[in-house]
Amino acid sequence: MERQLRAGELACPSYRAVLAPWGHGRPREVSGDLGTRLFVRPRRSRCSDCQVTHMLLPEAVWPRRADAAEVIGTGLEIAALGIGHRRVAAHLGRAEGTVRGWIRRFRERSENVRRYFTVTLVALADDPVMPDPSGTALADAVSAVAAAHQAAATKWAHVNTVSRWEFAGRVIDGRILTCTSSGI
Questions:
Q1: Is the pTM above the cut of 0.90?
Q2: Distance between CA 137 and CA 145 in Å, rounded?
Q3: Does residue 85 contact residue 96 with C-beta atoms inside 8 Å?
Q4: Exposure on the CB side of residue 106, measured as CA atoms within 13 A
Q5: DSSP letters of 4-63?
Q6: Which end is more exposed in the chain, N or C (fewer Cβ atoms within 10 Å of the end residue's Cβ)?
Q7: Distance CA 146, CA 73 (A)
Q8: d(Cα 106, Cα 115) in Å, to the nearest integer?
Q9: Could you read off the pLDDT of 3-30 as tens digits, one per residue?
Q10: CA dist 139 to 55, 76, 88, 133, 135, Å?
Q11: CA dist., res. 122 & res. 129, Å (int)
């Protein structure tokens, strides 16, 4: 990302103008899997057209989240099995309120996420295999993310180096839990 930023290969999401380096954000600690800690100092960039600054986060980190994408995604996958937030929180070693918030926000946005990743699946796969309906909107959205990740990994082997939730965050700029009801 740093190389792309310095080479002028990254574009502003609003204006499609070139992003330029603009310092760094404050360092922060993100909780990873199995109690690991990720220390992140996000790169800040500025649009050459609109002059708005943007934070550039690694795939493992979603905006405004203290837990890594893989941890949140694992919690969503467990919830998709019909397990409640208390048991998910206990399994992940996270606060119940935090996990309840992830699940609630994802459930509210699950139809948009399912639709977005189904379209992504169709665009990536030569002969897409649609996930079977799972019975809940949350489970259907989780299945769509997994299917799109698999299609991308089949097309580009290097996608196997990131988890499906890091992939999902990259595809929609980390907005898995923050997309609006009108769309992603």
A1: no
A2: 12
A3: yes
A4: 31
A5: HHHHT--B-TTT-PBEEEEEE---EEEE-GGG-EEEE--EEEEETTT--EEEE--TT--T
A6: N
A7: 10
A8: 13
A9: 999 999 999 888 889 999 999 999 999 9
A10: 30, 8, 15, 8, 7
A11: 9
CA gyration radius, the chain? 17
pLDDT of residue 80 exceeding 50, the answer is yes
Longest dimension (CA), the chain: 48
Q: Return mean pLDDT, the chain.
A: 91
Residues 6+ apart with CB under 8 A from 23: 44
The DSSP symbol for 151 reads H
Asked if residue 44 lies in contact with residue 23, where contact means CB atoms within 8 angstroms, the answer is yes
Residue 91 corresponds to which tokens in the numbers above? 């399994």
CA 127 to chain centre: 25
Going from the C-alpha of 15 to that of each of 12, 52, 76, 101, 175, the distances in angstroms are 5, 10, 33, 32, 19
- Going 162 to 26 to 64 to 97, the CA torsion angle's sign is positive
* Residue 1 to residue 66: CA distance in whole angstroms: 21
| Closest by Cα among 66, 62, 99 to 83 | 99
Number of residues in the chain: 184
What is the residue-wise DSSP string for 120-140? HHHHH-SS--PPPP-SSHHHH
